[in-house]
Design goal:
The protein contains 17 helices and no strands. By secondary structure, it is mainly α. The protein is globular, with a radius of gyration of 20 Å.
């Protein structure tokens, strides 16, 4: 057994931990792929096989997913601090394996909703943990790059899988072919996590020893209730990140649940719908590779504010458009706006939260952020049932613009070198 005196020193930084960091990027791509299996096919499955005509009813699977993922995110952070990161990651993969099988065999819409409860737990545990582990490894100065690579891998996998499942559905039907891809992702993710991923909690402890807190009053260990209050409303930067993240995922819930139906009513083919469903997360994924490290250089706040306002403009464009070409342009703008925000918000949380309670802060932030899926499903479904899909898109566009203005007014710059 290695004594403390001879144990190798824990080193921080992406370059110093390139192999385990790269493996976690690959694992998160598989997490994203499991989510991506639904983006193109499930809204059409609701309409064509289960004959759900009310938008609110059709979006119940997004409500189930978002609510479950939001709650699981909170516990993922707490459990990662208490039991370590790797056990939480493994639990996420074990829970994800039944999801594609339940969708393939579903005799009723209730099975789809139940599958999305499990998918929410899977994403809450597995995606949250890969975020926390990369923040552990990257250290304080390259969090933007770390989060850019993490979220890029996840959402490029969402995009690629959305495109692939659209093609599979067009060639082989809505079930089972598209969901066999998700089953392969789950098996591979579990195997890699079990046999190759290493624990990273010691990296967080090493950083805690030299951490410079934004606010000395928030230094050191805090109770979970205190952390929840800071991230939810007390601490200006953390609370601003939480509200912007929630509105961002409200947008994504709208895009996931209603955009394929909007495109279908305009007469687009399955292949075109799949291409649009893939384009937005593809730009989102690729853009994060640029915006994440840019926030390390120029600061977090400019990208958060500009990204929210760009999303608002893109959503307004979706509501006003009626052709494949126009929707292609708005999908690109929506992806760019989301890419500017997504890794930057996570990096801002990592900047402000002390390493001793950072995993729980990430969990609370992701609770609010992914709660946006549930809020978006309810809001978009009700407005769409009352006034149509386009009206729902206009409402969400307005909320997104307000969110950007709130972040501009309340948030301060969080990057250690830019403060």
């Amino acid at each position: 057994m290695t004594s403390p005196a001879t144990a190798p020193a824990v080193r921080l930084g992406i370059r110093a931990n390139l192999a385990p960091f790269s493996l976690l990027v690959a694992v998160n791509a598989l997490v994203g792929g499991l989510l991506g299996q639904e983006r193109t096919v499930l809204p059409l499955l609701a309409e064509r096989e289960f004959h759900l005509t009310a938008y609110t009813a059709a979006l119940t699977y997004i409500l189930a997913f978002g609510a479950t993922k939001a709650i699981t995110n909170f516990f993922a952070g707490t459990w990662a601090d208490r039991y370590g990161r790797k056990p939480v990651l493994l639990a996420g993969w074990l829970i994800g394996i039944p999801v594609p099988l339940m969708i393939i065999w579903a005799p009723s819409w209730g099975w789809i909703v139940a599958a999305n409860v499990l998918l929410g737990v899977n994403q809450g545990l597995a995606w949250s943990t890969t975020v926390i582990m990369k923040i552990d490894l990257a250290g304080p100065f390259r969090r933007g790059l770390a989060m850019g690579l993490n979220e890029a891998a996840g959402y490029l996998a969402v995009a690629g899988t959305a495109l692939a499942t659209g093609w599979l559905a067009a060639e082989h039907g809505l079930r089972p072919a598209p969901f066999l891809l998700g089953l392969a992702y789950a098996g591979l993710g579990l195997g890699l996590s079990a046999f190759f991923v290493r624990e990273t909690r010691e990296h967080a402890r090493a950083e805690a020893a030299v951490h410079q807190s934004v606010d000395g009053a928030h230094h050191g260990e805090l109770r979970t209730g205190q952390i929840a209050a800071l991230v939810s409303y007390k601490e200006p930067a953390l609370a601003s990140a939480s509200q912007a993240g929630m509105v961002n995922n409200l947008n994504d819930g709208l895009a996931w649940g209603l955009f394929p139906l909007l495109f279908s009513t305009a007469g687009l083919s399955l292949t075109q719908i799949g291409a649009l469903a893939a384009l937005y997360p593809a730009v989102w994924g690729l853009g994060q590779v640029a915006f994440g490290p840019a926030s390390d250089r120029y600061g977090r706040k400019p990208f958060i504010v500009a990204g929210m306002l760009a999303q608002a403009a893109a959503l307004a464009g979706v509501a006003a458009s009626n052709s494949f070409a126009a929707w292609t342009t708005t999908a690109i703008l929506l992806g760019l706006g989301t890419a500017a925000v997504y890794p930057t918000l996570l990096a801002a949380i990592g900047d402000v939260a002390h390493p001793a309670w950072r995993a729980r802060a990430v969990g609370v932030y992701r609770l609010w952020r992914d709660g946006g899926f549930a809020i978006g499903a309810i809001l978009a479904g009700i407005v769409a049932d009352l006034a149509g899909i386009r009206a729902a898109v206009w409402v969400v566009a307005a909320l997104t613009a307000i969110s950007g203005v709130l972040a501009w007014v309340r948030m301060y710059e969080t990057h250690p070198r830019r403060r």
